[in-house]
């Protein structure tokens, strides 16, 4: 189908200095946990994005000198010519599909420990490094250090050109880069020409831009990636004062502006905390003060919103990290008039979380992300069926939905059955919780795809028993029957049920999602899960008028959500809702409406009255699986060739893991897999031994 003409504007070329991008879709630099450690995976992933139509495809942050070594994070590196040749592979992959390749040169200054390079960190003043309270200090750079730093940056830009990049992004963002540290009053108390006035604090960044333009600006686009607000009020940069003035002072200098808010937790807010387009209010002034093209980010997934951003004069390019991860083919789908095929990012930040753990990023919506090279998976293509099999998938949660979707795309006959009256399993249930609505896109996308396939049939209100499965007549059965939260407090910290939870009703997240509630009064949410569910239960119940205490054995509320960049946002929200937070606490017993807790450090006992909401762990719903495999002869007699478990029914985990398991089942179906071997390609490092 030809594209709707109202989207034509998204496909206009934009000039960025000496280069021109074919459209307004700009995959901004984003970390992915592959970088220098898994370069083949990173290169293939970037190539797929260019194939999907992104006009500009950028690297992640690329460190350009050992004094800015971000180990243990697996970013890309451009320390020398060898690194340039690795990144050259990415340029080729992007060019092959007509995209422009951009490199983001980054030095994290006082925000690194240099734990691999062992160089002394550097910054505007003497200061302990901010990275993980690491016990070393960044030393104050003198004028000679600043000269050296500028030289390293210039040389890196030249290396980037030799690698084949078309665009170099000069970075002062996220409170994590050396030029940003020089710019911030709270970091920079220098008394020389690099400290004091805004002009002085901006000097280093201006010099980097000027020197990059001078070195490579004749052939490469030079982009300024700049945070205009830090959401710190007058303690930080604000778009209404210094953020604005800084842009104005350099307005015409770069070939393009890529503006955002800082730090990363604010720039990449999850959908729980910010809606699509949340950065507009901060960055919309930039186009008023500069004639250069401006790029904006803000988790844009709707082409109509993108058009509106451009028509309203907010920006010229739609920047995207997460939307390009969830759907590398977003631009192509708009171009080909296939909007119903767009796989919208749900704003969960699983991608960021894996990067922050120093592992290859994963995506909840796009299970092929990071598997392009390693497993040969493609977000849009999957090999056709190799038999006439009819597959029964039991359970239409994320695992079952994705299995049915991918098997359907392969051409198999698929029946998907679910006991409930609505599809989606846990995503349908969880997206009804406060501020998680966007999560249901996991379900929406797949249901939309079923509508285009005649070989996938979905049956709701169909609770299947062993007998019904045997009667059904499928060749293969996949159980995606999910899991159930425990009610007794057993989990990571407690290995025995909390005394009293049997006699006195406690409410698991499933109970709450089913609409059950204790009488209005006090509740204690006991969170030994440490991700989002405990905090969401607290948020929901506090919003309904309960007096909520959240007790956790962790050091803080939702400690794991540090990785998904949400921890601070979660804690702030709960405190604003009046939730009492008790870190380092375990529940000892529940007795006659009294919940006895104790501090894990001091042993001191604390009592709270009311009901307990334990958020600790889930157990697989695998009864049907075990019932079926108990009698192989009955399976054989009805022609069932295999019975498999996937998703939470196999191992309760994230929604991303369930989607991946569903995809994996479909990808591996009709293929011999060596269960003793490694199920993907691995990188072999060749050691330089001997003379
Ligand atoms: P996952 O995350 O692994 O996809 P979910 O818990 O989200 O798991 O989804 C499991 C789904 O399976 C739920 O929608 C549930 O209603 C359904 N289900 C569980 N047991 C049966 C059954 N015996 N027959 C049909 N559907 C079932
Ligand atoms: Fe979006 Fe979540 Fe995928 Fe990241 S992991 S791209 S936030 S859907």
TrEMBL record:
Keywords: Flavoprotein, FMN, Iron, Iron-sulfur, Metal-binding, Oxidoreductase. One of its GO terms (molecular function) is metal ion binding. The keyword Metal-binding applies. Residues 508-608 form the TMADH/DMDH/HD second alpha/beta domain. The keyword Iron-sulfur applies. Its cofactor is [4Fe-4S] cluster; FMN. Residues 10-338 form the NADH:flavin oxidoreductase/NADH oxidase N-terminal domain. It comes from the Bacteria. In the N-terminal section; belongs to the NADH:flavin oxidoreductase/NADH oxidase family. This is Dimethylamine/trimethylamine dehydrogenase. It comes from Dongia mobilis.
């Amino acid at each position: 189908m030809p594209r709707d003409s109202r989207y034509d504007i998204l496909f206009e070329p934009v000039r960025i200095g000496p280069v021109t991008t074919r459209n307004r879709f700009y995959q901004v630099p984003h970390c992915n946990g592959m970088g220098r450690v898994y370069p083949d995976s990173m290169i293939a992933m970037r190539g797929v994005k260019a194939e999907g139509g992104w006009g500009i495809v950028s690297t992640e942050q690329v460190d350009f000198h050992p004094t800015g070594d971000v180990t243990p994070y697996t970013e890309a590196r451009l320390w020398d010519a060898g690194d340039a040749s690795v990144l050259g592979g990415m340029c080729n992959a992007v060019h092959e599909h007509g995209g422009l390749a951009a490199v983001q040169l980054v030095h994290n200054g006082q925000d690194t420990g240099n734990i691999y390079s062992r160089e002394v960190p550097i910054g505007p003043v003497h200061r302990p490094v901010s990275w993980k309270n690491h016990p070393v200090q960044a030393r104050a750079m003198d004028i000679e250090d600043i000269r050296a730093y500028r030289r390293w940056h210039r040389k890196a830009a030249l290396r980037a050109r030799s690698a084949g990049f078309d665009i170099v992004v000069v970075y002062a963002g996220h409170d994590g880069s050396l030029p940003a540290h020089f710019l911030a009053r709270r970091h920079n108390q220098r008394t020389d020409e690099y400290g004091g006035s805004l002009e002085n604090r901006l000097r280093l960044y201006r010099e980097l831009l000027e020197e990059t333009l001078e070195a490579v600006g004749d052939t490469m686009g030079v982009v300024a990636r700049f945070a205009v607000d830090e959401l710190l009020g007058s303690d930080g940069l604000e778009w209404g004062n210094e953020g604005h003035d800084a842009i104005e002072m350099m307005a015409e200098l770069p070939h393009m502006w890529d503006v955002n808010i800082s730090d990363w937790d604010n720039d990449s807010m999850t959908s729980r905390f910010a809606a699509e387009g949340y950065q507009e209010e901060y960055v919309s002034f930039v186009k008023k003060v500069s004639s250069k093209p401006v790029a904006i980010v803000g988790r844009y997934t709707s082409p109509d919103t993108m058009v509106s951003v451009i028509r309203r004069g907010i920006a010229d390019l739609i920047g995207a990290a997460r939307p390009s991860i969830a759907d590398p083919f977003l631009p192509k789908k708009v171009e080909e008039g296939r909007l119903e095929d767009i796989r919208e990012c749900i704003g969960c930040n699983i991608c960021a979380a894996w990067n922050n753990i120093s592992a290859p990023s994963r995506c909840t919506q796009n299970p092929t992300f990071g598997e392009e090279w390693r497993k040969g998976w493609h977000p849009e293509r999957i090999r056709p069926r190799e038999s006439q099999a009819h597959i029964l998938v039991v359970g239409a949660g994320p695992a079952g939905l994705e299995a049915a979707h991918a098997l359907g795309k392969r051409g198999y006959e698929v029946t998907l059955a679910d006991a409930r009256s609505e599809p989606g399993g846990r995503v349908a249930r969880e997206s009804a919780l406060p501020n998680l609505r966007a999560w249901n896109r996991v379900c929406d996308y797949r249901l939309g795809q079923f509508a285009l396939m005649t070989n996938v049939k979905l049956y709701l209100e169909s609770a299947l028993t062993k007998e019904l499965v045997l009667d059904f007549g499928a060749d293969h059965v996949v159980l995606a029957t999910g899991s159930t939260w425990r009610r007794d407090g057993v989990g990571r910290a407690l290995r025995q049920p909390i005394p009293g939870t049997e006699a006195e009703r406690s409410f698991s997240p499933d109970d709450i999602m089913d609409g059950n509630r204790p009488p209005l009064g006090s509740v204690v949410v006991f969170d030994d899960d440490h991700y989002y569910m405990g905090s969401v239960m607290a948020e929901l119940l506090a919003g309904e008028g309960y007096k909520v205490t959240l007790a956790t054995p962790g050091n803080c509320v939702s400690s794991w959500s540090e990785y998904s960049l949400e921890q601070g946002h979660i804690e702030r929200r709960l405190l604003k809702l009046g939730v009492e937070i008790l870190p380092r606490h375990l529940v000892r017993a529940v007795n006659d409406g009294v919940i006895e807790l104790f501090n894990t450090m001091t042993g001191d006992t604390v009592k709270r009255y009311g009901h307990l909401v334990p958020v600790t762990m889930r157990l697989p719903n695998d009864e049907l699986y075990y019932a079926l495999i108990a009698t192989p002869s009955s399976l054989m007699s009805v022609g069932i060739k295999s019975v498999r478990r996937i998703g939470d029914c196999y191992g309760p985990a994230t929604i991303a893991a369930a989607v991946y398991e569903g995809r994996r089942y479909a990808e591996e179906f009709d293929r011999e897999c060596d269960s003793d071997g490694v199920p993907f390609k691995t990188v072999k490092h060749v050691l330089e031994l001997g003379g």
